[in-house]
Amino acid sequence: MKRFVPIALAAALAGTTALAGTARAQEDRISLVVNAVQIFGTVDPAKVNDYTEYMAIVNLYDALTTVDADGNVVPQLAESWEVSDDSKTYTFTLKQGATFQDGSPVEAKDVVYTMQRLLALNEGPSYLFADLVDPDGVEALDDRTVEITLNRVYAPFISNTPLILVVNSDLAKEQGDGEWAETYLADTPAGAGPYRLATWNRGAQMVMERYADYHMGWPNERPIDELRFVITRDEATVKALATKGELGMSSQYQSNETYEAIDALDDYKIIAADTATGFYIKLNNQVPPTDDVHIRRAIAYAIDYDTVREVIYPGGVLKGPLAPVFADAHLDSLPEPEFNLEKAREEVAKSKYAGQEPIKLSHAYVAKTAFEEEIGLLFKSTLETIGFEVELQPEPWNRITELASAVETTPDSTQVFYGPTYPSPDSVFYVQYHSKAAGTWSSMEWVMDPEIDALIDKSRETVEREARNAIYKEIQAKLHERQSDVFLLTQKKRFAANNCLQGYAWVPMQSWDTDFSRFWWDCEG
Q1: 274-491: what fold?
Q2: Do residues 156 and 10 touch, judged by C-beta distance below 8 A?
Q3: Whole-number Å distance between alpha carbons of 206 and 189
Q4: Do the first three CATH levels of 2-192+499-521 and 274-491 match, i.e. the same topology?
C-alpha cells in the first residue's frame, strides 16, 4: 500500500497573497459584508454548478480533503488516506472529533451516504464520479474508515476529493423527504463546515454564522463571526457600500472604474492574484457559422487582445485552453493570440461561408456586467468590419446555463470565465472538452471530437506524471489547431477589500479561496 498525507498535485501552482476586506465590529463581533454578482441557486452540495454556489458550499460543508494555496490536496475530514498498489482502491481514515453543525460526529456512514447520493442524483459534480465509482464501491469499514473502489485507474482521483462534501446522513434521513432529502438540502445545509446558514433571501442576501466548534479551529483570536453575502451587479451600489465603510469584500467581477474608485478610499485597497482561470469566448463548434474552423480562426484574429487585456479587463496572456500556472503541463510553444484583420479576412475567404456576407453570428455575455458589455461591443464593431453581422445577446447567468444545455440553443459565441473545479489540468480538459461532459455552461464549445476524447481518457489513466503532462500538451495543441475557443486572457483575480481583513490566499480551485474560516480581522496586520 502507498500512504499519502497529504499529496501535492501542482507544485507550480503557487501564490499566497495577503488580502484585505471590510468588516464591522459590534461588541467585538466581526460581521463581513461580501458582494456577489449572482444568486445562490442552491446549497445542496450534490447540485452546485457555478462559482457563487461553490462560494457558499465551501463555507457550509467540509469534504474529505481541501486544497491549500500551493495546490496541494490536504486533509480535512479525512486525516489520512492510502492507495492500493493497483491504484484503484482508496482507504480514508476520518479525523477523530470532527462534528457536524448539530454536534453529531462525522462518521464513515456519512461519506457512504454522500457518495451514493451524489451518484443517484447525477447532478452538480457527479459527472466526475458517475462512471468511475459504483454505489456499492463505497463501503464503511468501521466508524472512522471508508473505502472507495474505482472501476478503473483514474490518476487525478485525489484531486477530486475536495468535492466529496460530506452530508449528515442521519439528519437528512430524518426529514421525511425521500431517501436523498432533496427538498430539505436545497435550502438547509447539513454539513460540517465552518459556518451555519442563518437567513437566505435568494435574490438579495445570504447570511451565515460562525460554528464555534468547527473541527479545523480558527486562525486567529478575531475570526469572521458573520458573513453577509449581498447580491448585486449594480456597481454604484458596490461603490456606495465602500464609501459608507460597509463593504467587506467586493466580488471579483467589478469594472476598472469601480476598482479605481474604491482603491482611492482611505480604508480600502485592491488585491490582485494571478489565477488558473481562463476567460474564453466559447465558440459553438457544431452550428453554423462557427462549425467551420476557418470562421473560428477568423473570429480569433479579429479580437483586439491588447485592448481587452490592458484596458477593459486586465489579465494575462492565454495561449490555449490551459493557464500557464500549470507550468509542467502547459504547452509554452503555442503562439500568442494575434489581432490581425487581414488574416481574419483570409480565413473567412477559406470558409464554406465565403461570399455569404453578412455572416450572421450571435454573441452572448452576462447582462448588466459592465466589462462584459464593453467586450461585446468591441467584438461586434470589429467583426462587422470583415463581413459579419453580430447580434449581441446579453443574458442573465441562469439563462446562459439554460441555453448551454442543448447544442441547438447554445449561442454561436459566448463570453465565459472558467476556472478549475478541482486542482488538476484534467478539470480544464475533461469538464470543457470531453463529449461526456457536454451540455453545461463549461462546455459550450460542443467539441465532440473522438480523438480529443481519447486523449483525455488516456491522460486520466496515466499515473506517471511526466507522461500525463505530455498528453496534456498534445490535447492543447489539438484544441488550438481546431480553434475550439477564442482564448482571451488569464484572469487576474481582483477584490476591493478593507485593510483590516487578513488571510486571503488564491487557491487553484473554484471559490476555495473564499473559505472564510481562513480569514481574520486585524487592522494592524
Answers
A1: Dipeptide-binding Protein; domain 3 (3.10.105)
A2: no
A3: 13
A4: no
* Each residue's pLDDT expressed in tens, for the chain with a length of 525 residues: 433 333 333 332 322 222 333 444 445 789 999 999 999 999 999 999 888 999 999 999 999 999 999 889 999 999 999 999 999 999 999 999 999 999 999 999 999 999 999 999 999 999 899 989 999 999 999 999 999 999 999 999 999 999 999 999 999 999 999 999 999 999 999 999 999 999 999 889 999 999 999 999 998 889 999 999 999 999 999 999 999 999 999 999 998 899 999 999 999 989 888 899 999 999 999 999 999 999 999 999 999 999 999 999 999 999 999 999 899 999 999 999 999 999 999 999 999 999 998 999 999 999 999 999 999 999 999 999 999 999 999 999 999 999 999 999 999 999 999 999 899 999 999 999 999 999 999 999 999 999 999 999 999 999 999 999 999 999 999 999 999 999 999 999 999 999 999 999 999 898 999 999 999 999 875
368 within 8 A of 326, measured Cβ to Cβ: no
Using alpha carbons, list the distances in angstroms from residue 425 to 68, 71, 433.
16, 12, 12
Reported CATH class of domain 2-192+499-521: alpha beta
Q: How far apart are CA 509 and CA 19, in angstroms?
A: 17
Domain segments of the chain: what residues? 2-192+499-521, 274-491
- Its pTM stands at 0.83
